[in-house]
Design a protein that fits this description.
Length: 173
Amino acid sequence: MSRHLSSTAATARGFSVPELAIVLAVTALIAGLGASAYKTYVVRGQISQSLALAAQAERQVAQSFQRDGDPPANREAAGLSPATSDDRGRYVDSIDVVNGRIDLHFGDAADPAIAGRTLSLTPFESVSRDVFWVCGNRVAGAGLRPLGFANGTRQSIQVVTPIEPRYLPPACR
C-alpha cells in the first residue's frame, strides 16, 4: 500500500526561508516605526512641560508691556529675577527675556533631539494692545504686530527654532 501526501499536507510543515525573511523584515519595520513614534511623543512631552514652566514669564512680560507700553528688554524689566537659571525646570536650564521674547534653553537632561537648543515664545500685539504669544515657528495671525510696534519702540523679534518640526507641539509648528 503506498501512501500519497496531498499538496496541503506538504505545505503545512512550516515556513520557507523567504517567507520567514519577509515576516522578520516587516516586524523590524513596524518596531522601527513604533520606536520613532514613541521618541517623538517623549520629546513633545518634554517641550510641553517646559512651555508650562514659561507661563509665569509670559504673564510678567504682558503685564510689563501693559504698564509701560514697551516690551521689557530683559528678565529684570519684566519683573523676573535677574538670574536666567532661577526658572530652571527638569528639561530647561534657563529662561531668558529679550525685548519681550521668552527663550527656553534646553539642558542636558532633555532628550538629545532638543538638548542645547532654544525654543522661543514671541509676543505680538493686536490693535487693542492685547498680547498674543506665538510659539516656535508658528506664523502670527492676521492683524498682529511684534510687541512694541504700535509705540514705535524696540520690538520683539521672532526667532526660528532649530528644533525639528515633528518634535514641536501643534501650537508651535
